[in-house]
């Protein structure tokens, strides 16, 4: 094991650095200190309540910076069901059937964030569905014919906020007027927050900003000044490739940055990230965005062929009839990209060329230096109320790396000349804080894209459009809102009921779908119960229905965990949960049907055709992507805990999907979770078994075992073999050491693996099954190496496909000398074999 991917000392230094770095963040003062920060907890008489983001909210009855006009006191009420929300400032509201105005003073002149917080519920004397109102700030109309209850009916949560940017002139107060639609309707508000912002943050008032920073008006004019006669509404603020950033982690303005932007990513991408990166703010002010924005990104990945034929595309639904400010954040993370012309790409905003050759190094002079580019784009009203604003990045053909990269996106709607920000039609559009529907778009679309990639780019665009239209239509119908997508994990935790998260099927529906659980439809059997092939939606959609054994106590928890995890996670490489049923104490889960069953079914003890080496590599890459997403895609890492070949399912295109989240645990960053040891014998991380400290590295270990299983096509535990050979992971390591690994690989693969690819694959697999978690690579590293391995294989295969020309599959270098300890005894001491629940098929 000479070639450790990350030697232990280096890793240690890295950890230390990471820790110190975070300590520093926690203790340092914010980069921007807002002159005004008013937080008004409407309807409350509490002096000072703290919210999750450590903001202190002052009850409006006590605030000295606020007055309510006219001064009536019949308008204050507590939300009756507020317990389901993170309380402050949603517990109480100010409500009225007649117009009222909130006046703030004194407010220093200058641009401000104005955030309005709403919680849709019934308040005493106010029926939930009877809210319909307009909100004005001076001459600006912020919301018109707005109904929080209509908006939240399509969401899986009842609370949300809207953020606006408004300038306050000298000697002016800031007034917000709430006007009910008619005397039958009421207006309400739960909380108002006002925060000053730097004058050059989003506004480009003449004289206050360098000319080169004034955004171009895409396809219209060279420049578009966003002066103080314009109000802005934030519609998207995304940490591309990273996780959510809470308001308290912002640079002092309490902006929320949403993570997991794969919700809006319409093409396949890689996630370069460097959590240790310390951005050098030499080109833009350091309050522009938190460091985390620049520490992660999405790029296209290493496949040059594919990149040259495709775009890295985001689709963001917006209202039509407005100008939008689109801000793209960039930071070059790749150390190898340190010269201009290395990674150049074109930027299209709404399908119009906005930047012909974007070159981050040219803009910043060096990597690790953040920059942003603003564009203003007109989205014409063509009769349709909504439109998908696209951002396309496409590599320039003569660039060294055929790739593109994006670190963050912000999109603001700009007010019209009449000061209006409200959509003409009373449309309920997905807003940034309500990411459910785009998630659904994505999960449908991503699949399509995978199919389309092989068939050329022009076709891809057509498919995207067709698919978009179809999904758009669908999502208006009740059915499609069934499985609510992404919820921020922090806010839902365990207290949320499954009902809120996922479609509920009745037992009758389940019986119809499975012909009353007919034996002939059983496609899998296990200790947990049976898996049936079923049909829902009047027989038009085939699904897999897992009916868990009601006797099992274990089952109850796993059932819940699975629903909670899967309804929050969406990824091409995770199996999709469609819904569940728990009528009459039944525990039934409904998934997308995976035509090709489990990965193991294609490896050994099977009648299936053997998979080719390339297919196996692709399956491993897909599974690695799925795991990488679990480990990094959500706010806290999710540890699967039961990675094995029966939990990797294959769809009709042999695209792999991770399944079975019954044992999954949410970890905390950089800390190990202490748990009772669970998992499957043979795949179980010895480090975890001994110390009972669970980290993502336990999944990495299991994945390493899967890699050996894929290579050798044998059981990971086989008691019929000689003792030395029983446990695949340790046997494979021994063979690598002795230089005899080529004798135990699947005979079908002999002579078909390129030596470079083989060497890399072995190296990665061997590193994954290192004894100590700290020695193992991250899934991201594994993913990158596997992609490279595939490329190495393809380079060899390309000239004369299907002709095996490699006689020897092993290179001498792969035999190494290092002492591996034997740990089989340890495993058998700790493992509880009965707890291993296989995927929705049998083990
Ligand atoms: C941010 O930049 C300002 C001015 O450029 C500087 O004074 C301040 O120390 C910086 N803050 C941090 C946290 O780097
Ligand atoms: C508010 O209501 C209280 C009692 O309900 C009453 O005494 C008081 O005069 C009212 N205040 C105003 C300003 O109407
Ligand atoms: C409050 O919640 C309960 C159960 O969660 C529900 O039955 C009731 O209708 C809710 N009340 C209101 C006013 O929304
Ligand atoms: C508000 O909605 C009502 C009906 O819902 C409609 O009649 C009215 O014109 C709308 N007002 C505006 C300003 O859009
Ligand atoms: C604001 O008020 C101050 C004091 O009343 C006055 O001197 C100043 O001219 C006013 N400024 C503007 C822009 O009206
Ligand atoms: C602001 O910009 C608009 C056009 O974008 C222009 O009509 C207006 O005069 C400008 N106002 C100021 C105060 O510069
Ligand atoms: C690279 O892209 C080409 C063209 O889309 C495709 O045929 C090939 O399978 C891809 N290779 C990888 C490593 O995905
Ligand atoms: C740029 O990157 C290359 C390849 O990693 C390296 O050899 C070179 O020294 C780097 N140059 C600078 C100026 O950092
Ligand atoms: C990339 O997107 C732009 C703008 O939508 C489009 O014109 C171009 O054809 C796309 N290129 C590819 C290869 O998909």
Describe the structure.
This is Protein kinase domain-containing protein. InterPro entries: ANXUR1/2-like, Kinase-like_dom_sf, Malectin-like_Carb-bd_dom, Prot_kinase_dom, Protein_kinase_ATP_BS, Ser-Thr/Tyr_kinase_cat_dom, Ser/Thr_kinase_AS. It is a single-pass type I membrane protein. Pfam families: Malectin_like, PK_Tyr_Ser-Thr. The protein has 843 residues and is an alpha+beta fold. Among the domains are: 171 residues, Jelly Rolls (Sandwich); 115 residues, Phosphorylase Kinase, domain 1; 223 residues, Transferase(Phosphotransferase), domain 1 (Orthogonal Bundle), CATH 1.10.510.10. The strands form nine sheets. The protein has a ten-stranded mixed sheet. A hairpin with a 2-residue loop joins strand 26 and strand 27. One 2-acetamido-2-deoxy-beta-D-glucopyranose binds next to helix 4 and helix 17. One 2-acetamido-2-deoxy-beta-D-glucopyranose (NAG) binds next to loops.
